[in-house]
Amino acid sequence: MTQKNPQPVDLSKARLCVIRNRGSGKEDDQVVRTITEGLQPFVAEFDLRQTDEGSQLLDMARQAVDDGFDIIVAAGGDGTQSAVAGALAGSDATMGVLPGGTFNYFARDLGVGETMEDAIQTLRNGVAKQVDVGQIENLIFLNNVSLGIYPHILKTRESIYRRWGRSRIAAYWSVLVALRRLRHPMNLTARVEGESKSYSTALAFVARSAYQLESFGLEGADAIRDGNFAVLIAKARKPVPLLRSALRLTIGLSAKDSDFDLIITDEINIETYKPQQLIAHDGEKTRLASPFHLKVWHDALTVLVPAGGENKTKD
């Protein structure tokens, strides 16, 4: 992520609001205590706002901006971080990150700490930096946008979770079920700086997380740190070759010349032959009208990161 010089933050004068996507289970009260005890004594004003509905997060964060909070902290997984960032991008408010999901790509990209306690220390001792975000139409995303098979994997996973409950086995099974249902590749045209190229593919993946690409063994992380998208378009069009690409990806063997075409750009238009397309963005699903305009919104978001430069972002 492209960033300007860090700025110190006087937490003792700050009005701070935590927006938390509340989880279930015995540890819920302990998480609230950890957040409250870790932050409340160090700020001028503290508020904790919680919800069980992910759809409410964006409006809650917008309300916190309207209420004049200086620092708005997103406590939850990547979907929570993305929703709060969507409200804060372009505003004067500073975002804090408390990871609470499965993958926490945004938190890992920033280097804020992989545990709640470490991330709280970053909030108390960190500095404010401006970072880039991705934008597709009016939606803000932090990690990725995808078209093709992946949104349908998410849709299938939700159905399987409702029937069998959440588990790693259920998550893996949803991938196999979605791939089995893949009948036809997606036809799309990508336009960059006036040049167009058409593809027939099962998956188009627009990445904004350098950490995620590196964890997948894919190229493009340095380009992301330089302020671009890494757009990966799968060469596989049918289930068996796509499964082979997925297997290669899990053991770090994927490369642009074998499994994916790679486009490096900070702005791209993607047109599909369907008038509307289901897209996935940071683990959420939305149906949008084609064509889609995606761009990197440079320096859109101010985030608290470690003061010593331990974060994975690039100056």
UniProtKB/TrEMBL annotation:
The keyword Kinase applies. SMART domains: DAGKc. InterPro entries: ATP-NAD_kinase_N (IPR017438), Diacylglycerol_kinase_cat_dom (IPR001206), Lipid_Phosphate_FormReg (IPR050187), NAD/diacylglycerol_kinase_sf (IPR016064). It comes from the Bacteria. The keyword Flavoprotein does not apply. Keywords: Kinase, Transferase. Pfam families: DAGK_cat (PF00781). Residues 11-140 form the DAGKc domain. One of its GO terms (molecular function) is kinase activity. This is NAD(+)/NADH kinase.
